[in-house]
Design brief:
Blueprint lengths: L10 E10 L2 E11 L4 E5 L6 H8 L7 E6 L2 E2 L12 H8 L2 E4 L11 H11 L5 H14 L15 H13 L5 E5 L7 H16 L4 E4 L3 H7 L2 E6 L2 E6 L1 H5 L5 H14 L7
Parallel strand pairs: 3-8, 3-9, 6-7, 7-8
Antiparallel strand pairs: 1-2, 1-4, 4-5, 9-10
Helix pairs in contact: 3-4, 3-5, 4-5, 5-6
Length: 267
């Protein structure tokens, strides 16, 4: 899992553990993400993918291990090992964008207002500067003509694109994407993934939890397969989706293919 050729990793996760009550979900996750790298995280439900992602920006406090982003420990102050306060966390999270499965837009705010809120509250931009940046990114995701619409007036794909614009407008160091197409109708998936493809092509560092295997195969620099709360396999898309000696990964990919091609055609 070394990225020594790319220098010091932008994201470094070591020995990450997390339990909910008596149930361990993460059992010692190790993961490095280099600057400009797109890492797709795949695995069955319950394997710890989303929990790991939420620990990276401390939406879930981890029990043990370390999460460092750009050399800074996220979970606690490195000098004292004390947990960070909410004000500190808000400042750190500003550099870690996240796009959620269910959009998480403010329903009473327009598309533009959803994007400008963090720019004004966290980045402290003026109203004019925040509006200009929001217009830029909403235009980039194909929503220049929808900026003053409320979320209920937008399709699911459009809402998710607002969520992406909101995250990238903050100029994050790394973008976390959590199953961003799983709540969408199939015909809307492509419009969202095309935006992510553009960002990947421009060098945005991303960790993408996804069940879209073709997207992981075509866009990711590296694919990570999680199983039982650990990273079981990590490699290039060709290595992970090609000849693979991990039985759990083979079984997982076989189930995906069975869902996609129940009659065996097109596999």
């Amino acid at each position: 899992m070394s990225v020594t050729s790319a220098g010091i990793p932008l994201v470094r996760v070591r020995g990450l553990t997390k339990s909910f009550g008596p149930s361990p979900v993460l059992r010692g996750v190790d993961l490095d993400v280099a600057r400009g790298e797109v890492v797709a995280v795949i695995g069955a439900s319950g394997s710890g993918k989303t929990t790991m992602l939420r620990c990276v920006n401390l939406l879930e406090r981890y029990d043990g291990g370390s999460v460092m982003v750009d050399g800074v420990e996220i979970g606690y102050r490195q000098d004292s090992r004390r947990a960070r306060g909410e004000r500190e966390l808000a400042r750190l999270r500003a550099g870690i964008g996240m796009v959620f499965q269910h959009f998480n837009l403010f329903p009473h705010l327009t598309a533009a207002e959803n994007v400008t809120l963090g720019l004004r509250k966290v980045r402290r931009l003026s109203r004019r500067e925040a509006r200009e940046r929001a217009m830029h990114w909403l235009g980039r995701v194909g929503l220049a003509d929808q900026v003053d619409r409320l979320p209920y007036e937008l399709s699911g794909g459009q809402q998710q694109r607002v969520g992406i614009a909101r995250a990238v407008a903050m100029s994050p160091k790394v973008l976390l994407l959590d199953e961003i197409t799983s709540a969408l109708d199939p015909e809307l998936v492509g419009e969202v993934l095309s935006v992510v493809r553009q960002l990947a092509g421009e060098g945005m560092t991303m960790i993408v939890v996804t069940h879209e295997m073709s997207f992981a195969r075509d866009v990711a620099s590296r694919v990570v397969f999680m199983d039982g709360g650990r990273v079981a396999v990590s490699g290039t898309p060709q290595e992970v989706f090609g000849r693979q000696d991990n039985a759990r990964l083979r079984a997982f990919l076989s189930r995906i293919e069975l869902r996609l091609y129940p009659d065996g055609a097109g596999a």
